[in-house]
Amino acid sequence: MTDPDEAALLAAIIAAPADDTPRLVYADWLQEQAADATCGECDAGRVFGRDVQSLRPAGAWHTCRRCGGSGRLSDGRAGRAEFIRVQCELAALNDRHRRGDATPADAERLEALRRREGQLTMTVYPREIWPTFDWLRGLGINPDACTLDSRGGWIAAVTCDAAVWIAHGDAIRARHPVTAVRLTTAPEVGWVPPAHGRDGYFAFARDPAARRITWAEYRAGCAAHAPPGEPDPSASEYNPDVGVLLACRFGGGVAFEVPPG
Ligand SMILES: [Zn+2]
């Protein structure tokens, strides 16, 4: 990403994950940038003998199904803009539905939006509409190793193992307003003892960014997280909560779940 406009718009989205306004501003901007592209499926609008449904003789030229014979296609940006708008409206309607404020007209609209969301992601140009899988592969992440929930056009929640999140969480959060992370494995956490006048600290066993928390921060964090009336969990030398506290170092506003143990 090199476009300064896009960088500023994306920063606004990440700074306010619960606010749809920056997402809709981004969608408007994207729509303004939208252009045509050359059809990659055919040569000047025609396909050689690929239409198996056709009754035309084998080997004949057929009209391209993708571009309808024009040789030109949308570059996908208008579709991505629509996808963002559809998902924002879906999220708002779903919230109303959960609160019990939905009207019969809302239910109809919800159905139509869900259908359109499915069309955009499954049958239009999925790579442009939802460019996430290619992007994850570019980061070196196997998309099959993550479960992603999208809201309002971007990733909202990630389920993956601890190693994937520790290695790539920062990169994901730099481009997506992630608000929830569920780790399927407990992060490996080690205690580094005090040395040379420096406090000891907990750290991920393999943490490229060297995120760490001190014993004092750990105790304070445990006290803040302990349910009222429960014994102070930091009374023991090691507690799996330290993994949660460290994981939370990936940024404010992100709710973490880690498996027990
Ligand atoms: Zn074509």
TrEMBL record:
InterPro entries: CHP02996_rpt-companion-dom
Domain of life, source organism: Bacteria
UniProt xrefs under NCBIfam families: rpt_mate_G_obs (TIGR02996)
Name of the protein in its database record: TIGR02996 domain-containing protein
Species the sequence originates in: Gemmata algarum
